[in-house]
Design brief:
Number of strands: 6
Main location: nucleus
GO molecular function, one term: RNA binding
Structural class: mainly alpha
Distance between the termini: 118 Å
InterPro entries: FF_domain, FF_domain_sf, Prp40-like, WW_dom, WW_dom_sf
Biased composition (Basic and acidic residues): 555-641
Shape: elongated
Protein name: Formin binding protein
Radius of gyration: 60 Å
Strand order of the largest sheet: 1-2-3
Strand content: under 5%
């Protein structure tokens, strides 16, 4: 027996060759047409791959493992999707049937009568194919056999009815899967009543849904018939919401309706107990709402405040007459009682917070009004000349002691009257310094401590400074005060430096061998070359030397022998006393030096603040001056532009005159 020649598909497939590019990506090339494609040609695809090409799923490979991507939903999975599993089963079943027919044909075995094709010359209808995959069920007497008419079914509903008849005849119910059912009916002629697999699966799903609906309807009818009988039985038997099917079996084992409803009695019992549980829950909810409402009204009439703790509040509630008169309140859950108390306590806290906030707001408002009134009082004193930059608080206090605007500010939060008074005096002092700085900056000569008012008038006249006599006197006082402070500071620093130089000379004299009884003139050749000696005036030199000589004489009077313990003790006490005096004196000097340094640092900080304030005022003044010049230049430019627009001829003439 000769082998069959390859078909056209096999010949076409043999022309395609698989290759890989430099990146390792696979492509196919046709040997005759030289066409190259990235996707696998249809001639090389399996029946399942061709069927999958009509679905939104695409197969790709990552390494050696395939994965699937849905082009519509963009879903990506590693395993074969359910849709493709069903499709593969259908394709495999069809392929299996095809191979079986080819095998029978090749071996000469009898094959089942095939369904008629559309171009068949046979005008009759084929009988139903009983199949041999699984035993078939005999059709019911009322079912009229259905066959595929000549030329096929005219419409889809008739074809769907024939397919569903096939499913019914073969005994396929709602428990069957699509794959199992297809294997059973795939060889039956009625399997081809519907053309596509999608139509067949839709009819299969509709058939199973119809079976489920019919069985559910029959079950519902039986339950509707048994419901009133069993409900009466449950009511008479005292069924509670917590009873189970096991308990009901013991109670109603001899009842005929209970025995007949073996499949439905569990459902009806659950339905009955669920209704009882719902009624009981509704009753509990109603009682709970009643208790909460009654307790909420009661707790507002009791002596419970925001500071009352829970234990005390619970005792107050239990002792009340209204609580004892309502029996349902006594059965109330402790958590519900605590929830009512907690809600009431929160309401009290909110009221307390709101009242406290209101009182704080009123207190701040009163304090602000009191400060504004006291500031107005200080302005009145300043305008009346009773408050100046040199005023003292002890002088101002008797003037305002009985003023209501002063007494209303006492004891309120915020700035005190003394602080506001200091602010006002500081403002006046700063204003006076600014005015004095303007006058001093405009003068060509420097003002000294010895400068008089007449000399200042002459300097102002020479510099063209116009100011009132009061402003000049004020400026002179401010400048004199500043110069006096600077002079006093310089004197203090010079005195401190002098004391340090004296101490340095005393320390240096300790390293020079001097006779205790020798005088200053005798020791002068020994100490005249000391740097510490040269840094002092003669009076300070003598004072330092006298202190050192006195200390040497005291040491010389100390006994040479230590046998006379009494004299030694007295001498030791005297020396200790002298040392203590020296240490105390040195400590006083160090303390004075520390205080002087602290005052100096504080004055330096004050001067820095004054300089910063002066620089800020200068910047503001320069900024204002710059803005004024800019506005003036802008207005001049605008006027010039306006003049050009009004007289273009003159403008053009001016331009031509300046051209080269």
């Amino acid at each position: 027996m000769s082998s069959p020649s390859p078909g056209p598909d096999a010949a076409a497939a043999s022309q395609w060759k698989e290759y890989k590019n430099a990146e390792g990506r696979v492509y196919w090339s046709h040997g005759l047409t030289k066409q190259s494609v990235w996707e696998k040609p249809d001639e090389l695809r399996t029946p399942f791959e061709r069927a999958m090409g009509k679905t939104p799923w695409k197969q790709y490979t990552s390494g050696s493992k395939p994965y699937y991507v849905n082009s519509l939903t963009k879903e990506t999975v590693w395993n074969l999707p359910k849709d493709l599993v069903k499709l593969k089963a259908e394709v495999d079943a069809i392929d299996l049937a095809k191979r079986e027919r080819e095998h029978r044909k090749a071996t000469g075995q009898a094959s089942p009568t095939p369904p008629p094709d559309s171009d068949s010359d046979d005008g009759g209808a084929l009988t139903h194919y009983r199949g041999r995959v699984a035993p078939t069920r005999t059709p019911e007497p009322e079912d009229e056999p259905i066959t595929i008419p000549h030329g096929g079914f005219k419409n889809v509903p008739d074809a769907e009815e024939a397919f569903m008849y096939l499913l019914k005849r073969e005994g396929i119910d709602e428990t069957w899967t699509w794959d199992t059912a297809m294997r059973k009916v795939v060889l039956d002629p009625l399997f081809k009543a519907l053309e596509t697999l999608a139509q067949k699966q839709t009819a299969f799903d509709k058939w199973q849904a119809q079976l489920v609906a019919e069985k559910a309807a029959a079950r519902d009818a039986r339950i509707a018939e048994l419901r009133p009988k069993l409900r009466r039985l449950f009511a008479q038997g005292g069924i509670k919401s917590y009873h189970t099917l096991k308990t009901a079996d013991k109670l109603f084992a001899g009842d005929k309706y209970w025995r007949r409803a073996k499949a439905e009695r569990g459902l009806l019992l659950d339905e009955y107990t669920s209704e009882l549980a719902s009624h009981e829950a509704a009753a509990r909810k109603q009682r709970k709402e009643h208790c909460i409402t009654a307790l909420s009204k009661l707790i507002r009439t009791l002596d419970i405040t925001v500071a009352t703790p829970w234990q005390e509040a619970k005792e107050i509630i239990a002792r009340s007459d209204a609580f004892a008169a309502d029996p349902q309140l006594a059965k109330m859950e402790p958590l519900d009682t605590l929830a009512v108390y907690d809600e009431y306590a929160r309401a009290l806290e909110r009221e307390f917070d709101e009242e406290s906030r209101r009182l704080r707001t009123e207190s701040r408002r009163r304090a602000r009004k009191a400060r504004d009134g006291f500031r107005a009082l200080l302005r009145e004193l300043r305008e009346a000349g009773k408050l100046t930059r040199t005023s003292k608080w002890k002088d101002t206090l008797p003037l305002i002691r009985d003023e209501e605007r002063y007494t209303s500010l006492l004891g309120v939060p915020g700035s005190t009257p003394l602080e506001l008074w200091m602010d006002a005096v500081d403002d006046m002092h700063l204003a006076a310094e600014e005015r004095a700085a303007k006058i001093e900056g405009a003068l060509s000569a420097r003002i000294e401590l010895t400068t008089t008012v007449e000399e200042l008038d002459r300097l102002c006249a020479d510099a063209g400074v116009t100011a009132s006599d009061e402003a000049k006197r004020e400026a002179l006082d401010v400048i004199h005060a500043r110069l006096a402070r600077a002079a006093a500071e310089e004197v203090r620093r010079a005195e401190r430096r002098r004391r340090h130089r004296i101490d340095d000379l005393r320390d240096a004299l300790r390293h020079v061998r001097l006779e205790p009884e020798g005088g200053y003139d005798a020791a002068l050749p020994l100490i005249s070359e000391l740097p510490e000696f040269k840094a002092l005036e003669d009076e300070d030199r003598r004072a330092a030397f006298e202190k050192h000589a006195r200390r040497l004489r005291e040491k010389a009077r100390e006994p040479r022998s230590r046998d006379r313990s009494g004299d030694a003790d007295r001498d030791r006490d005297r020396r200790r006393e002298l040392w203590d005096k020296d240490r105390e004196r040195d400590r006083d000097w160090r303390e004075r030096d520390r205080r002087d340094r602290e005052r100096e640092r504080e004055r330096d900080r004050d001067r820095d603040r004054d300089r910063d304030r002066d620089r800020e005022r200068d910047r503001d003044r320069d900024r204002r001056e710059y803005d004024r010049h800019r506005r003036r230049d802008r207005s001049e430019d605008e006027r010039e532009a306006k003049r050009r627009r009004v007289s273009p001829a003159s403008s053009r003439a001016d331009k031509e005159e300046g051209e080269i």
